[in-house]
Amino acid sequence: MRFLSNGFYQAVVGIVQTHFERFGVGPSGPMDLRAYRLNHLILGNREGEKVLEMTGLLPTIGFEEAVSCAVTGKPVKIVCDGHLIPMCRSFDVLPGSVLSFERLENGGWTYFGVGGGIEEISGRQVRLKAPTLNGWVSFLPDDLYREAPKDEPIRVVAGPEWDWFDSRAQEAFLNQNYRVDSIDRMGYRLQGKPILLRKPRELISSPVSTGTVQVTGSGQPVVLMAGRQTIGGYPRIAFVSPTDLSRLSQTGEGEIVRFRKTSIEEAEQDWKAENEQLLRLAQILKNQRNSLLFSASVQVSDRRFYVQMTR
């Protein structure tokens, strides 16, 4: 597999690595963990296999071998050999196939995975780990998996320095609309009415985690993301609930973000429910594969339809 044209950003990402943080090395991993995990479920890959994370101007990919593929994350138009391909569904490509994507205009992250996983990028060449052609189509049931509404507030848990801010500042943090000012893998800068400390204080550099909401000296929040550092010196007013981090990651520049305070117990329950839902999806997709008797694709004009016969 190789890049026929490079995109603005494409990188091989794998599972979050936290065991090097004590040496000052960030955990990295995918920006949208849910989309990353769904990609593996659709392809039947072992969780932890690597995928391509892409944003902005996306690459054009040429294939030198037959392999099954899937695209998850920020919705984007996908074309393979002139045919439209749906998101969140596996599809097969053959040697000589060409895959292209429309541009992601204002942010968000799209994930491209292959059966067997991706090994590494070397120049324009992408080395695959163990190319697998599944010969069947897996798709997410619409009635089981639904994203939260985009305008739903992002849930946060109070951080260690929550009480460094008085009640007016806390209410301002929770009750205003923030505009996403700039985004990158390290963090999302938000713009709104400044929230100020009760009194001037300095924080000794302290540990941070993915989803930490820091308040800068200007009173504006920054949400730390997958490419974050391991310590920070700004007050940590809150932590984004792990369940809502994926949704926040897909927020583009200029879009609006609001926060809602939740408890640690509720955040833990939400995360448990999220993982249980993914386990149910994994079982449904496994049953789809086990019940398959026949699979074929049919081309009608510029659309490709998949026909499968199951037990």
Quick summary of this structure?
The chain has 311 residues and is α+β, with helices and mostly antiparallel strands.
Describe what this molecule looks like in 3D:
Helix content is 18%, strand content 34%. The chain has helices spanning 33-43, 167-175, 242-249, 264-290, and strands at 2-5, 9-13, 51-55, 60-62, 67-73, 78-80, 83-85, 91-93, 98-101, 110-114, 118-122, 125-128, 154-158, 178-183, 187-191, 206-207, 212-215, 221-224, 231-232, 236-240, 256-257, 259-261, 292-300, 303-310. An eight-stranded mixed beta sheet has the order 21-14-15-18-17-20-13-22. It has a five-stranded antiparallel beta sheet with strand order 1-4-9-6-7, with no helix packed on it. Strand 14 (178-183) and strand 15 (187-191) form a beta hairpin. Helix 1 (33-43) packs parallel to helix 4. The longest helix is centred in the C-terminal third of the chain and has 27 residues, at 264-290. It is elongated, with a radius of gyration of 21 Å.
